[in-house]
Each structure stands twice: as structure tokens, then as C-alpha cells.
Amino acid sequence: MIGKKRKWIICIILLCILIGVAVSFTVRKLSDRVAENPMTQDDFLKTDGQKIVNQKGEEVYLKGTNLGGWLLQEYWMCPVKGSDSVAQWRNEETLDVLEERFGEEKAQQLIEEYQNNWITEQDIRTIAKAGCNVVRVPFWYRNFMKDADGTWLTEKLDDNPGIQKLDWLIETCQKYGVYVILDMHGCPGGQNAGHTTGGRTCELYTNEHYQDVMEELWVTIAERYKNNPAVAAYDIMNEAQEWDGDVASDPRNKVYDRMLKAIREVDSDHIITIEGIWNFGVLPDPNEIGWENVVYQEHQYNVKDENAAEKLVADWAAYREQHNVPVYLGEFSYMPFADACEKYNIPYTTWTYKGTIKLDEDWYMYYKYVEAADVTRDSYDQIKEKWGSVLHTDDFEEVTKVTDIFR
């Protein structure tokens, strides 16, 4: 009799385990479905006065993060190391060293390995579940071209690694209901002399040929995605070199105007965002210059006081009302700005989604120390391993001070 009872107890325990596994699997599958929220043409964005709206005229409030370090490595936040004698190691130097050591084909394979592991579909799903509805993706011309002279990496556009990455990102984000802002972080010739451009020069404004190449790239991108509702905006030029002259003669505004007009030749519908970077006052009045369907953008890294942050955001809101143009905070790492932006209904994207070098401030949503690949000394296999699955965000530490602002 005791033996029969034990058998029944064992059967009941096994049945409970099976039910638990089935429920867990079902919940996971339901969660997967909840995360998928495919966009339609109704979700295509445009500006309406001071607001960003969809095709139904409904206001859409964008908040999310940057995919920094994915298509353009920045040495201070990515697992990459160069020569100790070179200050601020640039992405351009990484490419040059890899090509010199291993050849163009193998260098590109290593870059692909890095990019395929830095951002995956799981990351987009994580971003969507966190409460974000937009990502800003920094890219540079070397994702598509071999040099600043405009030599494309492939003859066929569909085979181009940069285009393939943008195609994948936009398709994946569209699946999860996340908008994409396409940000040219590094322009041919360089729009500033900082490491964020990927190169070392700042010759864009004085070299007409580099502007020609930049225009060709923007027209190619705009023509490819002109009908895609997942693309929220084209961000023409990241953090352009500061200028001491007046607004009318500012070389940045001349480049903005040229690119905007070229893009509009092939895509009259998508929003274009134009960066004043630290001050909207360097930009012309959009109504006077004839810029339509534009959003003005600032970045902020200097203010570290809550009251000062809110006052600054209030000033942006006043500028928005005065000039009847939507404004947007494209990069920041001090989280009280997010609260202030939500209070004044200003879209924002934090800098940035993930990083591998610990910093004192809250720069990342997810962090994990990962040993940097020394591209000057490590073997091909060592670099490939350091840029492999170890970069997946699954076991990165969540920085709740950042992720909580979206929830």
C-alpha cells in the first residue's frame, strides 16, 4: 500500500513539473508575441507644427537610446585597443591596421564578427520591452565605402555590408515597433576633428569633393528607405565643428542645406533632423530658410544639476514654440534630463545602449567589462574570439538608473 502511495506521489510530482515547464514555455512564447508590434504605413512619421505625428495625425512621443559603438567603434566604450602611442584611437586606424595585417577580406570578416555580436535581434527586443520606441543608429561612410573619395565596398548595393546592416536593423526594429533614426556620425573628410567621426581630419567644409561623396551616400540611403515607416528621421551630420561666425555664413548650415535639398529630391516625406549640437541659436529659422518637415536637435553632456537641466529643457520648449519646430535631445548621459524632457514633451535618446568600459556616469543601459582586442598585436583568431559571442548583452549588467527612466 505504501509503495502505491509513493508511486502516486511521484506521478503527481512529475505531472506538476511537466505542467510547470509547459506554463513557462507558454508564458515565454506569449511574451515573445507581446514584444512583436509590426509597423504599418500608418506609423510613418512627419512633423505638424511643433509636434511629431503619424499618418493618422496622432502625436508620437519618441524616447529611446543610441546604438553607439555598433557601426562605428569608439575606443572609450568599446572592446578595441590600438597603439599606446596614439591618443584617442580611431575606427579608421583600426581598419587600416587590420587591412595591413590580414588583408581587406579578413579585416572585413573581423568587422562583421564584431557587428554581428554587438547588436542582435535580442537587443532590439530588449530595447522594445524596456519601453523604448526609437533607436538612433550612428554610422559612418566607411561602413559603405573604402575611402573618402567615395569608392564603394561592393559593386552591387544589396551586397554592401553597410546597407545590409541598415536593412537588417530597420527590418528588425519594424518588427518590434521601434523607430530608427539614421545618424551619419562620421562624414567623408570629417565634420569635426574628434574621434567620434571615426577619422582624424576636419576637411568636409572646405573640400567640395567630400561633400559630393556625402551627398551621394545620403541620396543612396534616402532612396532606399523612402517608403519605410520604421525610419523616423535622417540625422544629416553628427556634432559638426563649432563656428564663431554668424548663422548665415556658418559652413555647417550650408552643408545642412545642401544635403536636405539633395535628400528631398528622392524622398520628400521623411523627417530630417538638424543638429545645433549645444545651442539651437546656431541654426537658421526653419521658416525663413524654407526647411520643412524638420526636427532641431541638441546634445548635452555639460550640465550635471537637476534644476539647471530642467531650466535648459524649458528653454528648448520655448524655442520650439517661438520657431514652431519640434526639438529633440539626441544624446545625454545625465538622467534628470529624461524627466525634464518628458515634462516638456521633448523626445530623447540616451547615450548609449551598452558599453564595455566602466565609467562614473550613467552612460549605458547595459554594461560588462570585456577584454579589448588589441588590433596591433592579437592574432586573427584572438580578435575574432574577443569580438565573438562574449559581446552578447545576455549577461551584461543592467544599469537600472538608466533603464528605469523608460519603465
What layout of secondary structure does this protein have?
Layout: H1 2-35, E1 46-48, E2 51-53, E3 63-66, E4 80-81, H2 91-102, H3 104-118, H4 121-130, E5 134-140, H5 161-175, E6 179-186, H6 208-225, E7 231-235, H7 251-266, E8 271-277, H8 286-289, E9 294-300, H9 306-323, E10 327-332, H10 336-343, E11 348-350, E12 354-355, E13 366-367, E14 373-374, H11 380-386, E15 397-398, H12 400-403
Parallel strand pairs: 3-5, 3-11, 4-14, 5-6, 6-7, 7-8, 8-9, 9-10, 12-13
Antiparallel strand pairs: 1-2, 13-15
Helix pairs in contact: 2-3, 6-7, 9-10
Q: Give the helix proportion (percent range).
A: 25-40%
Determine Rg (CA atoms, Å): 23 Å
How are strands sequenced across the largest beta sheet?
10-9-8-7-6-5-3-11
How many beta-strand segments?
15
Strand count, sense and barrel status of the largest sheet are: 8 strands, parallel
Distance between the termini: 56 Å
Shape: globular
Quickly describe the structure.
The protein is an alpha/beta fold and 407 residues long. The protein is built from twelve helices and 15 strands.
Features of the shown structure:
alpha/beta, single chain, 15% strand, 12 helices, 8-stranded parallel sheet, 3-stranded mixed sheet, 407 residues, globular
